[in-house]
Amino acid sequence: MPAAVQFVELLAAVGIERGLIGPREVDRLWDRHLLNSAVVGERIPSGVRVIDIGSGAGLPGIPLCLARPDLDVTLLEPMARRVAWLEEIVDALSLSAIVVRGRAEEPAIKQQLSGADVVIARAVAPLDRLWGWSAPLLRQGGRLVALKGESAEAEIARDGGAVKRAGGSLPTVERCGVGVLETPATIIEIERVGARGREGVHGRPPRRTRKDQTQ
Peptide bond before 60: cis, by omega within 30 degrees of 0? Predict the structure, then answer.
């Protein structure tokens, strides 16, 4: 708990100064960001290897580390200033997480981080593109756990077919933090069940989002 309080205090001060979160988010840091991320741990088995794609300010990876110190967590982020922030947070909170700079779609990253049990992501990309980045990092039977909120059902309806063609299971919606949070976290889960080619889910490399642009 003291580490969680420290993380929130740093987000509310340094995080705003560095543009990692908006000033309007300060009053919602605990429920919308920290706890919303931490409860995802309900869907993750004990002692597994987890990769947080596009970790950014450290969400959901840092709260997950705090709630589940048994996990082997890697924070993957392409932007230099965010990588610096993540390294400072890991050091300040004495976390065992590893920070890696790069994009999930890069060949070197696929080689370095492949075989993970779980990939987590929050506000990174549409579901089909996110699965295209996640699948090569997962072992057979590994799972993507994506925080999606109200868009979950619509994204499954739109992208579920493409995900299945790219080696994923039928996406399912789960709720985390029921009975704990006033508004439970909504996630989409996909299991890697089939072989997957080198290209994206539509036969071409996934496009980068604005969040992936380096500075």
Answer: yes
**Strand (E) or helix (H) holding 136:** none
Structure tokens at 59: 């969400």
Closest listed residue to residue 51, CA positions, set 33, 38, 39, 64: 64
Residue pair 51/116 in contact (Cβ under 8 Å)? The answer is: yes
Tokens (6 digits) for 97: 């997480």
163's tokens? 């995900």
Residue identified by tokens 């741990």 is: 41
Structure tokens of 84?
Answer: 């610096």
Question: Furthest-apart CA pair in the chain: how many Å?
Answer: 47
Residue-wise pLDDT tens digits, 18-63 = 888 888 877 788 878 899 999 999 999 999 999 999 999 999 999 9
DSSP E strands in the chain: the ranges are 49-53, 72-77, 98-101, 116-122, 138-147, 172-176, 185-191
Tokens of 94: 């004495």
Q: What is the pLDDT of residues 154-181, one digit of tens each?
A: 999 999 999 999 999 999 999 999 998 9
- Provide the whole-model pTM: 0.86
Would you state the structure tokens that stand for residue 175, as one six-digit string?
Answer: 């709720």
